[in-house]
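Study this fold:
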Amino acid sequence: MDATSTTAVMSTSNVTSMTTTATPEEVYDPLWVITIRWIIGAIIVFVGSIGNVMVCAVVYKNQRMQTAMNLFLVNLAVWDILVCLFNIPFTLIYNQLKSWPFGLFWCKTMPTLQVMNLSASTGSLVAITIERYRAICLPFTPPLSKFQAKLIIAIVSMSSFLVALPEVGAYKQAPPFGCMEVFPTEDLRKAYSLFLFLFCYFLPFLFIAPAYTRMILKLWQEDRDESSPSSGVTEDPKNQRRKRNVLRMMVIVVLCYAICMLPTYATFLWLDFGLSGT
């Protein structure tokens, strides 16, 4: 469930939409670049598909593992599987041919699926953060049920589709590369790019970062209380260890996602706001 595989289509589409004066013959890559690109792409598709399918299979076969958090992780895995099976292969072929041979339907579908993946992945991380916060900082709050988790997943998926819907209208088959993002006005394109940055990155992590900080401080305080002879804390040590391990894993996942996606959003904001002003 890594975020690096989600950047391919956006980087290709946005950059090509700005290079309207180039022709496909002028931008062919050297052989070593093509070879490295295909090798890396094949590794990402293979490892990403197998790993995420295994996550889904393990949770599906084990009823005890079908908790709210694991269902959110499965949702992340499903979106990454879609990226591995569709976005990456299409992007590799597009980069190789320097033109879009798949027709109008896929020209609109691939970028839409890409933005849906970004939005749904961030939404799933927010949902996981809420579930972990309830378990650690509000221990007497009843855990989310499977029905509630599935309802949240449905809301996240529908919201992601609505967020990505402008891509359906923006992408058109046009020369020189065959599939390009064309908004009616420059201001509308900038507004949409800024909206994606705020909705899919800045605002979610503005919530996630303080929440995980609070959870870490909570567990640290509980460890201190356990070491005090007069504390009277009797929580199962195994449960405490499990909470710490899960929290550590999710902090790593969130940090990796944030670090991997920051250059992508920074580049798009620079292309839309910085480059156009020079």
